[in-house]
Every structure is written in C-alpha cells, then in structure tokens.
Amino acid sequence: MFTGMLNGGFALIFCLLGFFLSGRKNKVVGSFSVALMTVVGIGIGLWNYIPLMFYYGSILFAFISFSVGYFGGGLDLNSDDLPDNFKVFLIIAVVFSLVNMSSWTIFRATAVGNIISPKEVDETFLLQIDPDKIRLVPKRSAEALSKGSLSKGKKGMNGINLGSVTNLDQKHATIQKVKGSMYWIEPLEYNGWKQQTQLGDIPGYVAASAYDTNVEAPFINKSPVTGKDINIRATLNGNFGRFAKRSMWEAYPFSFLHDFSFEVDDEWTPYIVATILTPAVGIGHLVPRGVVVMNVTTLEIKDYDMDNIPVWIDRVQPLDVTLEMISNYGNYRLGIIDSFFGDPARFKPTDYTDSKGSDLFFVESGDGKTTYWVTGLTSMSDKDNSLVGLMFQNTRTGEYFQMSSSGVDENGVDEAVTSMLGNDSIKWQPTQPIPYNVMGIKTWIVPIVSIDKGYWQGVALVHMDNVNNRVWSNNLKDALRKYLKKVNGTNIVDTTSVEKVYEGIVDIFNLVSIDGSVNAFFSLEGQFKVFECSADTIAECLVLPRNKKLKITVKDTGEKRLYVTGIDGFALDGNSDRVKVVEPQVSTSNLVDDMVDFDALSPADKAAALKALKDKE
C-alpha cells in the first residue's frame, strides 16, 4: 500500500512538472528536467527503504510522467494530425497496458484462483498435545519477558547500557524453531543515528521460550553451541552501512525482495532473511522463488533457490502473500462467473488479528517437524463468526492443506473465552487461538494474559466444532483434565502414558472433592502405588469392596499417581445382605448425596444408586 501511494505521488508530481516545463519554448531542457527529477525522486524513495528503482510500477510511472509532460504539454488538441512522437508514445502506452492487464483478475480469474491446490487433511494433521511443549507464551507475553531481560543492565562493547541506546525491534520479532523448540526471537534496534555511532555493533538479541511462562527471556550474546561472541553489524532499520535492507538490495538489484525477517540458525547465529518473489500470472500475483540471506555478524550475503534453502530457515513464505493466495482460491477457483453470482462454495480467510503481528498463526504439524501458517476459513457473507474449515501452508515449501471444520472462528473463540472469565475479563484477555489435536479432538488452545502488561494468567481450551465445550484454568494440566472430562469423560492428559493392569485387594481408600468433582484415591495390598479414580467417569470408584480381588486398568504417566481407566471384578453380590466397603479414612463436606449411608442400603438399592451416579455423567 505504501509503495503504491509513493509511486502514485511521484507520478502526479512528475506529470504536473512535465506539463509545466514542456509548455516552455525549450522542450529539450524541459524534458531533461523531468527525467532528472524522476531519477532524483526514485532515488529518494530508494533511500527511504522502498526498492522503487527496480519495481516495474515505478518505471511505468516514470515513463508516463515524462511522456505526458513532454508530448502532451505541446500537443495541439485542435489539430487533426498527431505528431509522430506522440504516436510512438501511444503505442508504448498500449503495450504497457496490455502487459499489465495480463495479470488482472477479471480476465484471468481461473488462473489466479488455482495458483494453489490444497490437499484435504483431517485432525491428525494437527500437532498432538504434549503438556511440556504447548505454545503458551503469546507475542505480548514474550515482549514483556524480553523487556525485563533488556532492562537488567546489559552493556555493549563500550560499556554503554543497551537500554539507553537500543530498543526491542518488536515489529520484526518472530516465532521460530531452534533445535526443535519454539522461541520468540527479539532483535534490538538502534534508537537513532547518534546512538548507533556511540554503540557500534549490537552485542546480541533476546530469545523467549514459547512454551514456558515462568522463565525469563535470556539475552543471547554468545552462541550456546559454538561459544562465539555475537556482534550484530547490520539491522533492519539501521543507518548508512548498517542498514541491512539496502545492502541486500545492492547485492540483488534486479530481484524483488520481500518480507525481511530476523532469524537464527541452530547454532544461534543471527541472519536476516528476505524472500525473492516472482510473478505467477502475467506480471502480478507474486510467489516465492527463493531467499536471500545475510549473516549480520559477518555481512556475508547469499541466495538460495527453493530446492536448496537451509533447513533452519522457517519463514520462506510471506504471510501476506499466503493470505492473498488463499483468498483468491476461495473466491476465484471456480471462475469469475461464480465469484459474481455468489457461489455458496466460496470462502475467505477469517479477519482475526491479535493486533501484534502475524506470527500468531505459525504452528507445527502433526509430526512436530514441519511448520505451517494456518488461518480459519469463513463464508463470504460471514456475519456470525462462523468457521467452515482451516487452511494450512508449509512455511518453507508453500504446499497447502485444507481441513474441514465447523463451529466459530478465531474471533468467536476469543469472545467465548472472555465470557468464561466473568469479572476477570476487566483485567485479563484471551490472545491468539492455536489449533491442537487433544486426544483426537480438534481444539483451540488460548493463552490468557493481563490487559495492561501482557503477563500470562492462564489458558483456555475450546472444542473447535462445539464452542460450548470450553474450560479454562490458571494451570495447564488442570485445564486439560477439565476439558477431557467435559468432552469425552476421561481425565488422562499425558499422551506418552502407558496402559497397565494391576490386580489386588483395596487397602487404603480416600475420597476427595475437587472443584465439585469427586475423586477416589486408594492403594492395593502389597502395591506401593497410589491410584486415582474419577467418580465422574467411573461411578464404582465410590464403593470399592473389601476382600475382593479387583483388576485395575490404569494409565501410567510416570507421575506418582496412576490414573484409573477401568475396574474389572466389581459386582454387587445379590445373595448377600451387605457389600463390604472400605470406609473412607478422609472425607469432605461436599460429597455427593448418593453416598450417605450407602453401606446400609440393600443390594437392589445399591444397584439403583450406582445407576443414578452413571446417569449423572
């Protein structure tokens, strides 16, 4: 948008200047002045961070402004004959127009809509939940942690406090994978030319874990792998020789470089990565064809085609290009006629933004090895935050994958979480929903942060297809247990757990009420294990018999407690007046009413009570 406005401004100025100067007697001087001003204007634009010199639109605008000024200013509109030079101008203008029209969507709708060809996937495509590797730290929280790290007296090579001469370049902060884990990488930027002169090289950057909400973001001034000092000699907004973009443009003057980002490799060496774009339809609808990479510690610049991009580079596909491709696919893949007459199969990306950049949609795939951009899809009319699916794009290769879904989109998810917070919504707010596979259930994981500072406060889980199935807690594992109880009646949350079977007689038995749910904790004779059984899902947990051998199926997660998933060998003895029940050694005041005087009930009443408990699930 800014580039287009700048080009348009240049065109208007030069056109008016051409008219003014060409009205003079000396057209040669006038045209030379217009050409000179055009070059100067484009040079100014180039100096101000826009590569206008090699943008075809700028060349077109410069040509038109010069030609209209030179030819049009001296044109006699009352004459029947056009000057030969003006005829040449018209021919060139027509050629330019035809070339430009070759990429207009109205003429090339089907080609534009089918640049991408998504493959259908199911919920297994989503990353399986791992409580130790869930992306709980949103961008706002990472910024708060990074500011805390920078404020603790970090000093540059000259002993200057970094906080006084630099600031966190939050515009270019990105989430990325480093050695298999996700981090928010926050580069530093000079406060100005004077501060750049005082400091010299910037001695590092900040890296905040995307998983751990309680760990301070460390300042990386040495590579944890090689031990080498990190001295950054060029930045994305530096001045003169320290302006990395200008150096990369100079090295590749005829390449259209886009989406400059700050990334680190698996040795924590910092680089600036820019995507090289090329037209896909006509001279427009640009797509990546490679990257240009600058090592900001050595200033070495290299380029790579799509087949040879280093494995540590995550962000090859610019998100704005991705969203354009998805939008065109949803609207034009069936042709221009369908787009005009409102085909119900059309869709568009949701308009969710977290107000802090695009990185909120950077996710891992089900194998945990590949990274994707992901956005919700909604109908073209979208008046109720409805969701019709998800679209994924491999951030390196550009492959697209589509997943069917229903429910509400990301905006609706945030609204649902806000409603759960109640009075706390005055001081807390949900951030970006991230899609995960929770025990085969498509689920949004939503971090909750403080409104004022962005500090982490809790996490919500929302069923992707049914927003009514939602929970939140200030503890991740507690939230997962609540969620799984709500959606499928189990509270096992560790996907690495192992199913085991124990046999024995109940020895010690306790009942505890937690958040309105009754859990039984017991041990078996001769077994030094603690078993936890949720009465919400297994009603028999409330009345385990004495002197009867039971077979207990559990999920062993490696914790001290074993989570019961089944009990065999339990049966009420119809020939007995009583069933021996281990008396609870610890009780609570808010147990379910069905437990009152259970030992005094007849076998038939006991069976009816157990049935009533199961009916409450």
Kindly report the average pLDDT value.
76
Q: List the quaternary state of the chains.
A: single chain
**Beta-strand content:** 25-35%
- Structural class of the helix and strand makeup? alpha+beta
N- and C-termini, Cα separation: 56 Å
List unreliable stretches of 5+ residues.
1-7, 47-55, 355-359, 571-601
The tally of helices reads 14
Q: How many strand units?
A: 27
Major pleated sheet:
6 strands, mixed
Assign an overall shape.
Answer: globular
Radius of gyration from the CA trace? 32 Å
How much helicity do the residues have?
25-40%
Kindly summarize this structure in a few lines:
By secondary structure, the chain is an alpha+beta fold. It has 14 helices and 27 strands.
Textual characterization of the structure:
- By secondary structure, this protein is α+β, with helices and mostly antiparallel strands.
- α1 packs antiparallel against α2 and α2 packs antiparallel against α3.
- The N terminus is likely disordered.
- It starts with a helix and ends with a helix.
- Helices cover 28% and strands 27% of the residues.
- The chain contains 14 helices and 27 strands.
- The strands form six sheets. Strands 1, 12, 13, 14, 15 and 16 form a six-stranded mixed beta sheet that branches. Strands 22-26-27-25-24-23 form a six-stranded mixed beta sheet, with no helix packed on it. Strands 17, 18, 19, 20 and 21 form a five-stranded antiparallel beta sheet that branches.
- The longest helix is centred in the N-terminal third of the chain and has 21 residues.
